[in-house]
Amino acid sequence: MEKYEHEYGADQIQVLEGLEAVRKRPGMYIGSTSIRGLHHLVYEIVDNGVDEALAGYCTEINVVIEEGNVISVTDNGRGIPVEIHPKTKISTAETVYTVLHAGGKFGGDSGYKVSGGLHGVGASVVNALSNWTEVTIKRDGGLYQMYFEKGKTIKKLERIGDAKGTGTTVRFLADDTIFESLNYEYEVLEKRFREIAFLTKGLKITIEDKREEEPKKAEFCYEGGLNSFVEYLNKNKEKLHKTPIYIEKDGEVPVEIAIQYTSSYSENIYTFVNNINTIEGGTHLEGFKRALTKVFNDYARSHNILKEKDSNLQGEDIREGITAVVSVKVKEPQFEGQTKTKLGNSEVTGVVQSMVNEALSTFLEENPSVAKAILEKCISASRAREAARKARELVRKKSNLETSTLPGKLADCSSKNPDECEVYIVEGDSAGGSAKQGRDRKFQAILPLWGKMLNVEKARADKIYGNDKLNPVIIAVGGGIGADFDITKIRYGKVIIMADADVDGAHIRTLLLTFFFRYMRPLIENGNVYLAQPPLYKLAKKGMQDVYCYTDEDLEKSFEQLEEKGIPRDSVSIQRYKGLGEMNPEQLWETTMDPEKRTLIKVTMDDAIKADEIFTLLMGDEVEPRREFIQQNAKYVKNLDI
């Protein structure tokens, strides 16, 4: 990577304000004190190494979760400057770790051309929110070290020996009086570091977890950069062209883009600014979409693929089946809101649009077979969109003509306030009948389903309208589907999937979740989708109140509790529920529907990339990846009914 030639010394470290408020209001700086905030501490330190990589000085970052949840992060960058800072009169390294907004990322004369992280608050905030922090620096031929407790300097920076090379090692133990838990999730950190490695071509990142008897370790380094990222995202999909379309241009706003089309019907575009995942998009995404639509329409017109009488392809037609990653580096990014999820720099739109126009036009001219394959899919998508529009209008007209637009099998609730209403989507008519009798009619609606529904992973929108299994769900939930979906128009605040605890039930849950993920995604993003948890077992004995168990662990615990009361387990009858229909209305209410006693699992979508990967893997056309997944995970399956 080309080095950003600029001094990186004491003069480049600017001080804006003190550190007092961090421990009092940690949420203002790291979002929350939950497990997410805990992981954020690690990201902040790693981001400092990534900034060195972006500047061309760091090639390797090693992260270790040590015993006792101590984190160690080592990079081979230039090392934090050690000389006395002209403003604070203490070492520059100590300044970086004890003064908020002190860092090499501010102003035009900063130590970095671009940077991620939280613009300089990272090191000091991590220090403030840790029981202790130890920083070791290799720089200028010396080995330096300093030590802090709860943000206070215990041992000032001192030279403790000589050292070859340069770099920084930070070890810290998060403050257990601030965070809800100190138990880092290896898989979450692993996923983030893989993402960073994709986005920072050539940077090697390792993560090792030493807390268990068998340590876990992973290493990520991708010379292919975003090409490798897109290939990873599409590993379980059928590709229309083998190699991703790669676009890269340096300049005032460096842009890197990789594009690959697949046979799927979903659109997956991921955008990043300075390695920050801008999940809400922004001006870089806008520029990319505009260019994509223009280039493909222009190519189709100039090569007579679209005739004069044909309408232009819409953006959604051209983006069907696309997987793309758009990464830009912006010197002074402007993000909308505090969460850095949407880029606001207006100049980036034109930069990205112009670059994609030129590079993609050239690629299509030089690769006519790829252009033809993509455009055939786009035209097919356009026809399906038109068919879906006609089907949608037909559904709307039918709904307007009917006196009642709600599905006949729906037992609606009396309340019309979505905030207090909930709908149970129930597998089977018999279970639906019990649920209707056992429910609280004021706020609980019941929609029975029968038979297997359409797998939307293998169908376009035109096949969904009018589908006898999905249409009742669409009409009952309200809000429409796809691009028309409006979260403000849903009829129920909770959409609860209630299926049997067996293979068929799991299949129905997966089919429904796939539908919600692909066509009502805001429903999941907004936290409106839940899974009901019916019991697996009932323990009964004459003269004893029935005991319901929801897991095998519950069952064993219940037996132990009964034995403590003098009731031997061989005197208790045990019933294994094979389906919801085996419970009478009172039992179903008591175990699964009573808000005071039930257990609901909220379906969340913290990681859209992982969610898309799993839905594609389990529900898509490619058989071999699914077979491998089943073989690798079969040993973890519980409660499999044969």
Structural account:
It is a single chain. With 642 residues, the chain is an alpha+beta fold. The chain folds into three domains: 10-220, Histidine kinase-like ATPase, C-terminal domain (Heat Shock Protein 90), CATH 3.30.565.10; 226-385, Ribosomal Protein S5, domain 2 (2-Layer Sandwich), CATH 3.30.230; 404-534 and 602-636, 3-Layer(aba) Sandwich (Rossmann fold). Helix content is 35%, strand content 20%. Strands 5-4-3-6-2-1-7-8 form an eight-stranded mixed sheet. A hairpin with a 2-residue loop joins strand 4 and strand 5. The chain is flat and about 80 Å long. 41% of the residues are buried. The model is unreliable at 399-404 and 633-642 (pLDDT under 50).
Q: Unreliable stretches, pLDDT < 50, 5 or more residues?
A: 399-404, 633-642
The CATH homologous superfamily name of the largest domain equals: Histidine kinase-like ATPase, C-terminal domain
The name of the CATH topology of the largest domain is: Heat Shock Protein 90
Q: Can you identify the CATH class of the largest domain?
A: Alpha Beta
Tally of separate helices = 18
- Secondary-structure class: alpha+beta
Mean pLDDT over the full residue set:
86
Largest sheet properties: 8 strands, mixed
- The total domain count is 3
Q: What is the CATH architecture term of the largest domain?
A: 2-Layer Sandwich
Strand content: 15-25%
Q: What is the tally of beta strands?
A: 21
Question: How big is the Rg?
Answer: 28 Å
How would you sum up this structure in a few lines?
This protein has 18 helices and 21 strands.
